[in-house]
Design brief:
single chain; two-stranded parallel sheet; four-stranded antiparallel beta sheet; alpha+beta; 11% strand; 12 helices; 341 residues; 8 strands
């Protein structure tokens, strides 16, 4: 899909002059997704001989209701199992109903929504507004070049939109945007220094909303508790279930909520292709099982002493941590969300 523009007036472009239609993964993003699938297959199938040659019933992929996750998953599956489609056998992507999806998540959680809306992005909390007010000169430059109205709430309640646009351009090896004059790019462009300022502010925002502020852990546990309960259930079933590999394709906010619950020691904004990997190991000849969590290809370190460096931690320890927060089968989540059942 490529964006097109009318040549018949009035056809004034507001915002960045680009060629993508939201929501759409760029060509570079699709290429990265395919390479990601090759890398995963290279480790878990070729090196460790853990994955089967074809997916069958041992492998499951799950996406959210946002079409971009299906775009990514399609490339990953094609790279990991290139011969899966030759047999003309349907290979579904699992997806939950939009109103109750736990992966994105979209289920109702009034208490968490209230915390995020009153203290985080889009709120009038003095603590949140402080960095936005300090960034007024930067916003003036970005708005003037992009054509985004200065009263656009989505662009000015956080740096999310500017961060996504600029980072995706650089990720796709595209130049930073320039001001559009008479339908053409001018020489007045966003500089790398200005883009780096946006990225630093974005990193601050994610750290504030998911780790640093004193309300973030409480909000994340309620907001993402159903998925964590599902994760715990899958870890319990590992080894007994025919499914050996589960792959969830979600969003930066999804991963951030999970990292918040794991109490990641140093929070960052998850980039394209960011992943949290849960590996379950069993000790030969015993009933002992252990868990390793990888973040960014390295063993995850939690600031919670119960978890610490999550490298061959007894499975029961991690399950007790999850169950204590959200309850087995997410039994505590309705109460955490302020929902009567």
């Amino acid at each position: 899909m490529k964006a097109s523009f009318s040549t018949v007036p009035p056809s004034t472009l507001l915002g960045f002059n680009g060629t993508c239609q939201l929501p759409q993964i760029t060509r570079g993003g699709l290429d990265d997704s395919y390479q990601h699938g090759l890398d995963l297959a290279g480790v878990y199938r070729d090196l460790l001989q853990f994955l089967p040659a074809s997916p069958g019933n041992e492998v499951l992929y799950r996406v959210t209701n946002n079409v971009i996750t299906s775009q990514v998953a399609g490339m990953v599956v094609e790279a990991m199992f290139p011969f899966a489609n030759t047999a003309n056998t349907p290979f579904p992507l699992l997806i939950q109903p939009d109103s109750i999806d736990s992966l994105e998540p979209t289920y109702s959680c009034p208490s968490a929504s209230s915390l995020y809306s009153s203290l985080g992005s889009g709120s009038t909390s003095p603590t949140w507004l402080l960095h936005l007010n300090d960034a007024t000169p930067l916003y003036a430059v970005l708005d003037a070049i992009s054509g985004v109205p200065t009263n656009s709430v989505p662009f000015h309640m956080s740096f999310d939109h500017y961060f996504d646009n600029l980072s995706s351009r650089l990720c796709d090896a595209k130049p930073l945007p320039c001001q559009v004059i008479n339908g053409k790019n001018s020489t007045n462009c966003i500089t790398q220094t200005e883009a780096d300022q946006v990225f630093r502010l974005g990193e601050y925002e994610y750290d504030f909303q998911y780790r640093s502020a004193n309300w973030t852990f409480q909000a994340a546990v309620a907001h993402y508790g159903v998925f964590v309960a599902e994760l715990a259930s899958n870890i319990r079933a590992a080894g007994a279930s025919p499914v050996k590999y589960r792959h969830n394709v979600a969003h930066d906010g999804s991963i951030s909520s999970l990292l918040s619950i794991l109490q990641l020691d140093v929070m960052v904004w998850p980039g394209m292709g960011a992943e949290v990997v849960f590996e379950v190991f069993s000790k030969a000849g015993t009933q002992e099982r252990y868990l390793r969590i990888l973040w960014g290809g390295k063993v995850l370190r939690s600031s919670n002493p119960m978890l610490g460096l999550v490298d061959m931690v007894p499975v029961d320890t991690v399950l007790a941590y999850f169950d204590g927060l959200v309850g087995r089968g997410a039994a505590l989540v309705p109460g955490l969300c302020g929902i009567m059942v």
